[in-house]
Amino acid sequence: MTVSNKLEQQLTNRPNSYVPGHTTGNLFGISRSRNPDGLNHLHHWGMGLIAAPVRAIMAYNGVTGPYASFIFMALRLTADEVLEYNAGVTPKPWTLPVLDQT
Question: What global pTM score does this model have?
Answer without folding.
Answer: 0.77
